[in-house]
Automatic annotation (TrEMBL):
Keywords, ordered alphabetically: Apoptosis, Cell membrane, Cell projection, Cytoplasm, Fatty acid metabolism, Hydrolase, Lipid metabolism, Membrane, Transit peptide
Gene source species: Streptomyces violaceusniger
GO molecular function, one term: hydrolase activity
Ranges of Polar residues composition bias in the record: 155-166
A GO-annotated cellular component: cytoplasm
Keyword DNA-binding: no
UniProt-recorded name of the protein: Acyl-coenzyme A thioesterase THEM4
Length: 166
């Protein structure tokens, strides 16, 4: 029988780390994110940009910064709810982020009601804000991944042919 995709949940790895589906088999975060300190509704991370994520000379790629925020903003809620997806993510890039040097990310839950979560975070170096982010998260509905897979396998009504206006 095929594996149930909706059984997927981000839970602590054998070494106690929260890891995405891509990093779990490695038992290490390949973005360079480590939890430094956790309270009920807030988590602090130590983050080092790996050299292969540089965008400009010695400076992190903005996509890496967004991915780090996606992880950090989810981890703060995953400690309560292991079945989440990101609905929206907004990043403000304030200063260049250095490659290969530890920076701090702090994330917190601002609001939580039912399936809806609002979370925010900032990335700092020596108390200077480098970037900030806000996200809306959703607790997944029970058949979230099953519906996604069913849509991918369903034949497209219009195929790839030319569009006809009616
Ligand atoms: C230290 C390192 C740590 C590392 C720790 C690891 C952390 C990893 C965290 C990664 C988190 C991610 O990036 S998750 C990946 C990025 N995010 C996603 O893939 C989410 C994609 N978006 C969605 O699935 C949807 O928009 C939702 C679930 C966000 C919508 O939520 P909602 O606003 O509450 O609305 P909802 O009522 O559920 O659905 C709205 C409409 O979308 C449809 N819909 C909802 N779900 C689906 C679905 N699965 N497949 C098809 N359609 C769907 C509904 O039928 C409905 O259609 P109608 O009635 O309007 O027609």
């Amino acid at each position: 029988m095929a594996e149930d995709p909706d059984a997927f949940a981000v839970e602590p790895s054998p070494s106690g780390r929260f890891l995405c589906g891509g990093c779990a088999p490695h038992d290490a975060c390949r973005l360079g994110v480590e939890i430094a300190d956790a309270r009920d509704d807030a988590v602090r991370f130590e983050v080092v940009c790996p050299p292969f994520w540089h965008g400009g000379p010695g400076v992190a790629h903005g996509g890496w910064i967004a991915a780090v925020f996606d992880d950090a903003l989810n981890v703060v809620a995953l400690r309560i709810e292991p079945r989440l997806v990101t609905k929206s993510l907004t990043v403000s890039y304030l200063r260049p982020v250095p490659v290969g040097r530890p920076v701090e990310v702090s994330a917190r839950i601002d609001r939580h009601a039912g399936r809806q979560w609002e979370v925010s975070a900032e990335m700092t170096l020596a108390d200077t804000a480098l970037a900030t982010a806000r996200a809306e998260l959703r607790t997944r509905r029970p058949l979230h991944f099953a519906h996604h897979q069913a849509r991918l396998t369903r034949p497209s009504p219009s195929g790839n042919g030319p569009r006809t206006e009616s």
